Amino acid sequence: MRVHKTPWLRRLGVLVGIASLTAGIVSAPAVPAAADKIADKQAEAAKIAAQVEAQGEKVSILAERLNVARIKADEVQAAVERSKVEVARTDAQVAAARSELRGHVVAAYIKGGHFSEFQLLAGGDQHAGELAVRNSYVKSLTSSQRAAIDALAQAREAADAKHASLEAARKSAHDALAAVDADRRAASQAEAATEATLNRVKGELAGLVAAEEQRRAEAAARKAQAELAARQAREAAARAQPTQAGSAPTRGRVRSGPGAGTGVDPGPAPAPNPGAERAVAEAKRQIGKPYQYGAGGPDSFDCSGLTSWAWRAGGVSLPHSSSAQYSATHRVAISDVQPGDILFYGSPIHHVGIYVGNGSMVEASHSGTPVRYASIYRSDLVGAGRVG
After folding, report:
1. H-type alpha helices, 111-142
2. 6, 56, 113, 228: most buried, per Cβ within 10 A?
3. Please, are residues 186 and 62 in contact by the beta-carbon 8 Å criterion?
4. Would you list the DSSP string of 332-369?
5. Is the CB of residue 53 less than 8 Å from the CB of residue 5?
6. With contact defined as beta carbons under 8 Å apart, do 174 and 167 qualify?
7. Cβ contact 338:275 at 8 Å
8. At 13, phi and psi to the nearest 5?
9. Is there a contact between 126 and 138 (Cβ–Cβ < 8 Å)?
């Protein structure tokens, strides 16, 4: 997730820009000193913008770890529940084996057998004399009685194994949940650091920071588009066929400068199927809602929470994790993306957006920035995935 301007930054940027122009007109003789001052402030703004971007990246990575840990915890909990069922089944088998063995003992007693048979066979007192009796008696057991004893021993062994497996699963679940909690605390600390940095840029630095962020975003978009065009040219040459799509889908690209807000709706674009159409429409309905790491709607979202929510409306369940969504979708070339496809960013993957057409996606970017329209062209673009 990349850091862009928030509305208050843009408003302050406009005011600071106007004030700077006015000051330049009124105090023309002081231009060299003013220029040095502005240069210093620009350098400081560039430094702060880099810090904000790095902190936003850190929060997004922690948010992805949180989502992965939650998925792991859910999987382990499901395994625990399955183990409970298996343990209960094995306990029933043990009870049945004991009942069968007890029946053999009663039958033997009725026929004149020794009454302490059950006690001996089931593990009673094992003094030397009784042990000798046990050895003597076991030799005289019928095959059915021996089978009952063997079944009881096997059932007990299976029960012990199932119980041990259950305890291991419980520990694993506890560890996974502890990891989730640790990620949550780390993400909270990183988010607080981001907010503190954003507060620092209020005032006369706001416009300069916004301008620096805009410059970075536009440079990254130009670089990404140039690399994409070069890659497409190589692919086209290899196929010896002209490439039609994806070389310049810049119309409708989100504005990244002052006044961008939640971006610009890129306009209608035909979806390949009804499910994708519903997913895109649902994503657009979330425009303006706040970002919150680990959130999956309906009031706030993180990146994978948004795409998962959108595609739920399209009839498909996607995991709440960027990397898991990458595994759950089919790879498509960027030149072939269609509305409803998922765009993946970062290494390791920690950000996603849903393509809505004309080079734009809907994304939940980072803390302080609402769900918005944004260009798909960024330097950390990994690839695209198709749902279904």
Report:
1. 117-121, 128-139
2. 56
3. yes
4. E-GGG--TTPEEEETTTT-EEEEEEETTEEEE--STTS
5. no
6. no
7. no
8. -65, -40
9. no
- Cβ neighbours of residue 204 closer than 8 Å, sequence gap 6 or more: 16, 19, 41
All residues at 6 or more sequence positions from 296 whose CB lies less than 8 Å from its CB, including other chains: 302, 305, 308, 309, 320
Q: How many residues does the chain have?
A: 388
Both tokens of 47, joined, read 């430094």
Amino acid making up residue 32: P
Q: What is the DSSP letter of 291?
A: B
Beta bridge partners of 357: 360
**Domain-wise residue ranges, the chain:** 7-31+218-386
At residue 83, what is the residue type?
S
Pairwise CA distance, residues 16 & 5, whole Å: 15
Taking domain 7-31+218-386, whether its CATH number is 3.90.1720.10 is answered by: yes
For residue 377, give the 3-state DSSP assignment: coil
Candidates 258, 254, 277, 272; CA nearest to 375 is 254
